[in-house]
Fold these 2 entries.
Entry 1:
Amino acid sequence: MFHSAAVKLTLWYLALITALSIGTSFALYHVSSNYLEENAKRQASYFSGLLGPQNAREFSNLRFRQLADDRNKLKSNLVIFNLLVLGGGGAASYGLARRTLKPIEDALESQVRFAADASHELRTPLTAIQTENEVALRNAKLSRVEAIKLLRSNLEEVGKLKTLSEGLLSLAHSRQDHKTTVLSARTLVKKAKDRAAKAASLKKINLRTSSVNGDVNVRGNEQKIVDLLVILLDNAIKYSPAGSSIKIDIKKNGKSTEIIVSDKGQGIKRSDLPSIFERFYRADHSRNKQKTTGYGLGLAIAKKIADQHGAAIQVRSAAGKGSTFTVRFPKA
Ligand code: ADP
């Protein structure tokens, strides 16, 4: 599809170049040919005074034959020039067309991949619900206890679907028209901690905060930045052993403000580090015998929020030792 679009665009570019080149050539031919004719006439009239009438006529004939030759030469030069422009312009136009279409091609490809990945992820919980219900329906003696168990399991899968669709929605929203204000970093961290508190207490994990003296500000949308911090805290909790502690630091670094989440959990393998911000990417947890609970969307969403705020997210991690995620916000 893109090849034919590129060819079409090439033809448009080429038509434009050719029209310009032929137009210019006509004008050039017209001007030069007039000039040559003027010259020939001037020479003929000048020499007619010096030579006798017979010689003057011969000279004039010769001069006008020369003029016709010059015009033919000019014409063939211009034809060659136009053919060269057509050849060179064709190649350049094709290159230019491919360059113009490349970002569109990439965006479309990424959308197709996004839809394919999303459908693939949606299938797993849907298939689980379908299978469980089909098995239960075939059981003529389904007891009340079994039915309740089935409903609970269905609800769990529906919950997962809801989380997944919410994640997909935040990734799909590309608009950046959110309200931004100057926010206190400490308040943002507190709000994020409150939201992560339940998950932390279930694993008896202690969330500690330390911050610079006096408060520091960041500019942005409160809800989004809190969402970003909750993603980092949830991950830190999810990938840390029960009873461990997680630290949240607020620091000033030059004119920027940093919010740093450090855990002492399982860490991330060096080979996984470059990919963890990609959507649907989950590092392999089989070694840790840990059930994966996420869809690999959290960090992609966090990165998107950071991008929308002109902030950067960096990660430092050592397998088995823990991870540190730093979000650096520009001057508020
Ligand atoms: P998920 O829903 O799988 O947690 P994320 O996008 O939030 O998806 O994270 C992608 C992957 O990065 C996770 O599967 C996990 O392997 C790794 N990861 C993220 N945060 C941490 C962390 N604090 N400690 C260890 N691994 C992490």
Note: The pocket of adenosine-5'-diphosphate is lined by residues 235-236, 239, 263, 265-268, 276, 281-283, 294-300, 323 (CB under 6 Å).
Entry 2:
Amino acid sequence: MLDVVFNTIWLMLPAYISNSSAVILGGKFPVDFRRDFLDGKRVLGDGKTYSGLIGGTLAGFTAGMLLNIFSLRFPVSVLFGLSFGAMVGDMVASFIKRRLGLERGETLPLVDQLDFLGGAWMVTLGVGYEWFCVNFTVPIMITALVITPILHVAMNKLGSVLGIS
Ligand code: CTP
Ligand code: MG
């Protein structure tokens, strides 16, 4: 049981680091160039910036390279999939939230906590299908879906205590 949780956290760390670093590294230039979508609302909103996207991806990627020193588990393509995919999932969620009429920062429960996980998995499936099937077994995926929202809420609490978010 505990080894499954440990394994899950290890495998998800590049995505976790990517997602939480974007909050710290977020800057001024919105990915959507402040443009509106067909419905007259912002495509993504001011909460999705290039420095968050690029910085988050690099942070997750670097974290995975460091984990590889201890145990070589992540191919480079997979690291890209997990870290960049997390950022893509987060942006897809913002796109959906704007279409639902939610302003930047307004909450959409579960989507806010699992968007980056979905993106990380989808992109990783694309770049490393076999690696994904071997490493993200059904118990690992179920564990990830359960612990990610819990960790997300805990990290946000820690962040606000430290004055980051
Ligand atoms: N952030 C960023 N660029 C990204 C992702 C995140 O700059 N690609 C930063 C922004 O400062 C953002 C913060 O991280 O406000 C928190 O991210 P998130 O909760 O995903 O964005 P929200 O501000 O809540 O916006 P949304 O409603 O679109 O989710
Ligand atoms: Mg948010």
Note: The pocket of magnesium ion (ligand 2) is lined by residues 105, 112 (CB under 6 Å).
